[in-house]
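SAMPLE LOG
Freezer: B-3
Tube label: C17
Construct: single chain, 333 aa
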Amino acid sequence: MVGIGAIPAGIQCIILYWLPESPRYLVRKGRDEAARKILFTIYSGAQAADIEEKVAYIREFTEDKRPGTKWEKAKKDFKSLYVLPSNLRALILACGLQGIQQFSGFNSLMYFSATVFKTVGFENPTAVSLIVAGTNFIMTCITFTIIDRIGRRRILIGTLWGCSAGLIICAIAFHYLPRDASTGEINATGSNRWAILILVSQIIYVMFYALGIGNIAWVGQSEVFPYNVRGFGTGMATATNWGANLILGSTFLTMMDRMTPTGAFGFYAGLCFLGWLFAIFFFPDLSGFTLEEVAEILSSSFGIRESRRRRKALKQLSEEERKRREEALMEKV
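STRUCTURE (predicted):
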């Protein structure tokens, strides 16, 4: 069973052979010819002169002309991540999204779903847990088709409340499960209406999770950091994700025992509600903006109103101006 986990990892390892390197990285390493080949693939139909212009632009943008050693420059960039207001707000957004994603309790459910379903009386808890995992897969695929059309902020606000609602229903259902009068242990079968409601509530929870924070945490993280601090910023956000994952994985069963399942799922519902408030008051939709524009939006506030104002202005651009913007956005590659 453990070995099955090696299958997707092996497939990904094989696919990585065809994954192209970032043109920015290649230009920084002096491998201009390799960068040109990849740019020709990205900009299909482009002329050689256009590609040369792209390479020159990337070189100008990525070349670090600041005095000092690499170590001194790295220390300066790391410091700017916390000192420069726009960078600090970007870090708060990225780490906040990753924290919400984990503290919503999703991975605890994935890790211990078979244990949970066995507790409530399902005869084949592993098969039941696959229903939940399948829901996550399907809704994740759906998210890919709607995230750019609806927008990150709208989706996040429209789904986090659903995560909280699903967990509240789950907590209530656990409270009403039949118990042994002498021991107080849960004494139910998979056909019990409250056990079925627990399954339905977890499916609801996973649906909203996969549509929203499950994907947007990673997408949003990639859009907020300027180039010079992107490595540090994404590293801190990813560390937040795995640190929270470690905390949840090591405390979930203890919480189920000490707080009761009702208390544990109610606690996660409260955290999802706090995440929903975070999205409402702090998270702007930064898709479609250049890195320079993102820094401007986050320079004086979290930029919810400013991003909305700029997005309205984008809709009034001419076709030629939109084309130039699309080319500028491709420079994020």
